[in-house]
Amino acid sequence: xxxxxxxxxxxxxxxxxxxxxxxxxxxxxxxxxxxxxxxxxxxxxxxxxxxxxxxxxxxxxxxxxxxxxxxxxxxxxxxxxxxxxxxxxxxxxxxxxxxxxxxxxxxxxxxxxxxxxxxxxxxxxxxxxxxxxxxxxxxxxxxxxxxxxxxxxxxxxxxxxxxxxxxxxxxxxxxxxxxxxxxxxxxxxxxxxxxxxxxxxxxxxxxxxxxxxxxxxxxxxxxxxxxxxxxxxxxxxxxxxxxxxxxxxxxxxxxxxxxxxxxxxxxxxxxxxxxxxxxxxxxxxxxxxxxxxxxxxxxxxxxxxxxxxxxxxxxxxxxxxxxxxxxxxxxxxxxxxxxxxxxxxxxxxxxxxxxxxxxxxxxxxxxxxxxxxxxxxxxxxxxxx
Length: 385
Fold this sequence. Notes:
Layout: H1 3-33, H2 37-61, H3 67-102, H4 108-112, H5 114-141, E1 144-151, E2 163-167, H6 178-191, E3 195-199, H7 214-217, E4 226-229, H8 232-237, H9 239-248, E5 251-253, E6 257-261, E7 265-269, H10 274-278, H11 286-291, E8 299-302, H12 309-314, E9 319-322, H13 333-340, E10 346-350, E11 353-357, E12 375-382
Parallel strand pairs: 1-12, 2-3, 3-4, 4-5, 7-8, 8-9, 9-11
Antiparallel strand pairs: 2-12, 6-7, 10-11
Helix pairs in contact: 1-2, 1-3, 2-3, 3-5
C-alpha cells in the first residue's frame, strides 16, 4: 500500500473513533439537559468544530507558525484530553443510571425533579473534567530527574561513575517549541553528564519552524557528545529533514551503527521499525548491528521502542535505553499501553543485562499527563569490579 494510502486509512480510523466519541457526548448532553432548539443547534456546531480542529491544526502547522495556528493547536489538543475524561465520566453516569433502573431504585427526589438533577449531574461532571484537566496540565510541566545507578557488564574500573542523561519523546512541534526545549537543555546542562542520548521522537509531526530547534540543541554542553536514534515520529515529520537538523546541531544520529566513546564504551543505535512500514525502506538489520558488537566490552543500545530486550541481552548488550510509550501519558490509557508494551517504564533486568524505559519529557496530542510525570533519566554507570 502506498505511503499516502496507509496514512489516509489511519487518519480515517482515528477520525472515525474520535468523531464517534463526540457523537456519543453530544447525544448524552442533549438527553440529560434537554436544551432548546437554538442551544441544540449551537452545541451541534461546536462539537463538529472541535472534532475538525485537531486535524486542521496539524495541517496548518506544516505551512506556518503564527499565533492563530498556535492557539488552534492548543485549544484542540487540550480539548482532546478533556474529551477523554468527559467520555469516560458520561459513560460511567449512563452505566450508573442503568444500574439504578435494573435495581428498580428511583428515589422520589429524582422522579419529582429529574430534569433539574440531570442538569446538576452534567454540571458536576463538567467541573470534574475541568479539575482533572488542570491537574494533568500541571503534571506535564513538572519535569523531574530520575537518578539510577546501573552496573554495566564489561565497564572498566576507571570508567566507574560515567554519567549518561537519557532524553526521550520531546515531541518538538507547535506546542513544545523553543521555550520548552530551552528549559530541557538548561536542565540537562545542570546535570553535567558525560554523554546525552536521545532515544527517539525528538520531533512530533512536520512543522513549519522545525529547523529552529537546532538553536537550543546546539547549546548542549556534554563531555563526550550527544547521540540520537530515530523514533516513529521522525518518519511522520520527514526523517531526512529531522536527521539533518539534528546533525546540524552537532548531534550524532546513529542509524544502524556503532560509535565507541572514551575508547571503550560501545553505543549502538538502530532506526525505529516504522521506517520500513511508512517510507518503504528495508527493515533495520538488527542481527547485523548486534554482530558488530564486542560482547566482552561495555555496550549500550539505543532503541526507541522497548522491544527485543531479550535478544539484545543474549547478544551481549549490557544496557538498552528506550522510550516511546510515555508511560501511557494519561490514566487509564497507561493500562492499555502495558498490554501492548509489557516492559513498563522503569528499570528491568535479565541476568547481568539491563533495560531502562523512559516516560519521556514531552507529550503527544493533549499537552497533559496524569499519573505518568515527565522525566529526564540520569544514569550513573557502575563497574561490576
